[in-house]
Write a structure and sequence with these properties.
Blueprint lengths: L4 E3 L7 H10 L5 H6 L1 H5 L4 E5 L2 H12 L5 E4 L1 H12 L10 H15 L4 E6 L4 E6 L1 H8 L9 H7 L3 E5 L3 H12 L4 E5 L23 H12 L5 E4 L8 H5 L7 E4 L4 H14 L3 E4 L5 E5 L28 H12 L6 H9 L11 H19 L7 E4 L2 H5 L3 H7 L4 H13 L8 H10 L11 E6 L2 E6 L1 H4 L8 H21 L1 E5 L10 E12 L29 H13 L3 E5 L2 H20 L1 H10 E2 L2 H7 L3 E2 L7 H10 L2 H10 L7 H8 L3 E7 L4 H20 L3 E4 L2 H7 L9 H17 L7 E9 L14 H4 E3 L4 H4 L1
Parallel strand pairs: 3-5, 6-7, 6-9, 7-8, 9-10, 13-23, 18-19
Antiparallel strand pairs: 1-2, 2-4, 4-5, 10-11, 11-12, 13-14, 14-16, 15-16, 17-20, 20-22, 21-22
Helix pairs in contact: 9-10, 9-15, 13-26, 14-26, 14-27, 19-21, 21-29, 22-29, 23-28, 23-31, 30-31
The site of flavin mononucleotide has 18 residues, from helix 21 and strand 21.
């Protein structure tokens, strides 16, 4: 039976308007109710207080119109519960009708008015009888005590908290509401619920299509009909951002959970201006960020991880790739979980967006609620990033494993190794130094500079530095020998240019010292008459330029000249310029790149080859400077994540990482031609000879304005495609297939060995950076080579 009721005007949507809308549409079935726009988007309950005849009538009308189809009256139960909460000793005393009436009377006196309300939830057609606000809140939050004392609860009820983004934000809003951690909530999100949200959002299937704000608000009101909240369903924009942050209820805490990068920065800039602390939870490894702009308004946003970036510099809409570029510094690629890192690489390929788990979202709700409590109660909570990493906590020996993969670990051990072998030479003859300097300008795989020079008097030896030459996919050191050949070619050109004698001498004593060549150098004795070789002038200009070309075809004359240069050096050069076959080749090369990135050993070696910062590059003066790779920011971001073996392992497991093929696809699409240099004898000296030819070829290409970019991973991996220690069975099968496809496009003679695959391009801009070379003191050592020095 409905008692007389009096309207309570805490709702923006008044009872009058509700009734009018309902009456006007003459609805009487559940389906009809839901088909109305008004009902679809309503999010506030209407509260009816006892004692108002007019409202009693309204409520009755709602019943008659079929707008309320369920009632729930559990007032007696709530009263009992309340009595036990207020007087725990009465727990076991039976409650009879007389005692209940007396208790009701007592409460009415304390309340000085009705002790109950009827709450109508328009979206579910239910009318529910609940205790009046003070009693309701007292009882609902009773079990918080005394983890949260009554005084603390009252203090928290003064807070206004704003939540931007209602995926994790939904869990946060509910945790805050459940625990009573704020007096007013502002919620915003511009999205609607989709089925694909339902792995992490506790919503109902019949809520698909509803605004996330509407759903969150309803959920809060279903917990607490007296909640106070406002929603911004169109999201945050220039027109309402101030209103959201300040408006008539300034936020005490901003919880930022959106994926709009520009907005993230903008919110922090304004939070700093208005001195509002910001909390962010990232649903990955329980990452929780606290930025106390309230006490440190000059704090750098995101703990300084994005120093110098301001919202105004960020475009309003970003592609996924660009988002990753901004998101990675924020997330810090070295700490993001391996699965998340691997997934970021695969977004737009095999994944539609970044993953988020229900359990992590729930944890996010809990972490943020704890932080809101902490700040609200003025308890210590400094700015910074913390991890509530459940997986690590649950795993065995988590810290040891994480420490082993910590950034800098690999670098340190390599540095030690380099130090071990470096014996500083005494000052050397100027001519030899000059020749060695020019030799070192030669290219080498991964800029490994796999050479060591020894000198004594006029004698100069060139030896292979096995440690530097090591690469699991090149067990015969063919890449290193090729580089040595290129270095010799440079030396020969320099000697000839200077009219110095550089005479090759046989030296049996250094056969077991990886000696590649031994020379007599005589600067005084002129090697005349000689015609200067113009290629010398291009030694300094030659560079690995990985930029994109125009794709314009090579002139026939130029193709022929290149092939002749190769043939002069007993090498076979094939040039491929057919667009269709080039694109098939790009797929093969891309797939090999992917395989290399994801293979445990090859990934480790690649990671060690890259110099991840300018500082590291300038200190080490070898390896591949990240900047020289001329990658897109998103590709760099992906590469940084692949530094971590677990990320590659994750992608291996899921068969992901298809985006790793893109670099090869894109660069090859801009090529004028692709060259494959091969020889018919793989003996070391033949490979060195081919290296000389290759260098001539590269210098010649440079002289003709062509960019040459070696892309060798595929052909070197094919050499070891059957290696069971290096590759899994799946990888071996894939490689065998790729190799077959490769040679269908670029066939070579029986017994021929492919040594160098490269891209030739025209119209490429200048290379971003020149790869550094190690100081001459590190590569030029005194005395004849000895086995001891080599090992
Ligand atoms: C045998 C060999 C293999 C190479 N493979 C690649 C390759 O696969 N991808 C690439 O970008 N550069 C490759 N390079 C180029 C080297 O990375 C480059 O020569 C080195 O970083 C030094 O830079 P520079 O050529 O600009 O002097 C290769 C070079 C040689 C000699």
């Amino acid at each position: 039976m409905i008692v007389a009721i009096k309207p309570q005007m805490n709702s923006e949507q008044t009872k009058a308007s509700l009734v009018m809308t309902m009456q006007g549409s003459a609805l009487n079935t559940r389906q009809d109710v839901h088909s109305q726009e008004f009902d679809l988007n309503c999010w506030q309950p209407i509260i009816f207080e006892n004692g108002c005849a007019e409202d009693g009538l309204t409520l009755n009308q709602l019943y008659e119109q079929g707008k309320i189809w369920s009632t729930c009256d559990t007032l007696q139960r709530q009263l009992l519960d309340l009595q036990v909460a207020l007087h725990p000793k009465l727990r076991d005393t039976p409650m009879d009708a007389a005692r209940l009436a007396a208790w009701q009377q007592e409460l009415q006196e304390i309340q000085r008015g009705p002790i109950d309300r009827w709450v109508v939830y328009p979206w579910s057609g239910s009318a529910v009888r609940v205790l009046a606000p003070k009693l309701y809140n007292r009882l609902r939050l009773d079990r918080n005590r005394n983890k949260i004392t009554a005084a603390e609860q009252a203090c928290l009820a003064e807070q206004t908290v704003g939540i931007v983004g209602l995926s994790v934000g939904n869990a946060i809003a509910l945790s805050l509401a459940m625990e009573g951690l704020c007096g007013h909530l502002k919620l915003t999100d511009m999205d609607t619920i989709d089925l694909s949200n339902m792995n992490r959002l506790r919503v109902r299937v019949d809520e698909i299509g509803l605004h996330k704000t509407v759903v969150a608000a309803r959920q809060v009101f279903e917990l607490n009909p007296y909640a106070s909240l406002s929603i911004f369903s169109e999201g945050i924009h220039e027109g309402n951002i101030e209103e959201f942050l300040v408006g008539d209820r300034k936020l005490d805490i901003l919880v930022e959970e959106c994926d709009n990068i520009r907005l993230k920065f903008q919110l922090r800039e304004l939070a700093s201006r208005h001195r509002i602390p910001v909390i962010m939870e990232t649903s990955d490894r329980g990452m929780l960020d606290v930025e106390r702009f309230d006490v440190q308004p000059d704090l750098e946003p995101f703990h300084g991880l994005c120093a110098g970036i301001q919202s105004a510099q960020i475009p309003h809409s970003l592609s996924h790739e660009d988002k990753v570029v901004f998101a990675l510094p924020i997330l810090d690629s070295s700490t993001v979980s391996p699965r998340m890192a691997a997934s970021m690489i695969d977004v737009d390929e095999s994944l539609s967006t970044w993953p988020q788990l229900g359990s992590e979202v729930a944890l996010g709700g809990a972490s943020v609620a704890a932080a809101v409590r902490q700040i609200g109660l003025r308890k210590p909570m400094t700015s910074g990033r913390r991890f509530v990493d459940l997986q690590a906590l649950l795993a065995t020996e988590p810290n040891a494993r994480l420490a082993a993969g910590a950034p800098g670990h690999g670098l340190k051990s390599l540095e030690n190794e380099t130090e071990k072998g470096s014996e500083k030479p005494s000052p050397v003859d100027a001519q030899i130094r000059e020749l060695v300097h020019v030799a070192c300008l030669a290219p080498s795989g991964g800029n490994s500079q796999p050479w060591r020079f020894f000198h004594e008097g006029k004698r100069l030896w060139l030896t292979l530095d096995r440690q530097r030459a090591h690469n699991s996919f090149d067990p015969y050191h063919r890449g290193a020998l090729l580089a040595m050949g290129a270095a010799i070619r440079n030396m020969e050109l320099a000697a000839s240019h200077r009219h110095w004698r550089l005479k090759r001498v046989e030296d049996a004593t250094c056969n077991d010292c990886d000696c590649i060549a031994s020379y007599m150098v005589d600067g005084a004795e002129r090697d005349s008459p000689r015609v200067a070789n113009p290629l010398f002038n291009f030694i300094n200009k030659r560079v690995t330029n990985r930029g994109k070309g125009t794709g314009a075809p090579l002139e026939n004359g130029l193709q022929r000249q290149l092939i002749e240069v190769a043939a002069d050096g007993q090498c076979n050069l094939q040039l491929l310029d057919d667009a269709g076959r080039l694109s098939e080749l790009a797929e093969i090369v891309g797939e090999c790149d992917r395989l290399r990135f994801l293979n445990e050993t090859l990934n480790r070696e690649l990671v060690a080859e890259v110099r991840w910062s300018r500082l590291e590059a300038s200190q080490r003066r070898d390896g591949l400077d990240l900047e020289a790779l001329q990658l897109k920011p998103s590709e760099i971001a992906g590469l940084r994540m692949l530094r971590r073996p677990e990320v590659a392992a994750g992608l291996r497991e899921t068969g992901g990482g298809n985006a790793l093929k893109d670099t090869a696809r894109n660069t090859l699409a801009s090529a004028s031609a692709v060259g494959l240099l091969s020889i018919d004898n793989g003996a070391a000296q033949h490979v060195v000879q081919a290296g000389k030819t290759f260098q001539s070829l590269w210098l010649f290409a440079t002289s003709r304005g062509l960019s040459l970019h070696p892309m060798t991973a595929a052909i070197y991996m094919f050499q070891v495609a059957h290696d069971q220690c290096l590759f899994s069975e799946r990888e071996r099968r894939l490689l065998a297939d790729l190799q077959e496809r490769f040679h269908a496009i670029l066939p070579i003679g029986d017994g021929h060995i492919p040594l160098m695959l490269f891209r030739l391009s025209q119209g490429v801009g200048p290379a971003t950076i020149r790869a550094l070379r190690r100081p001459i003191e590190d590569v030029l050592l005194q005395g004849p080579p000895t086995r001891g020095v080599q090992s």
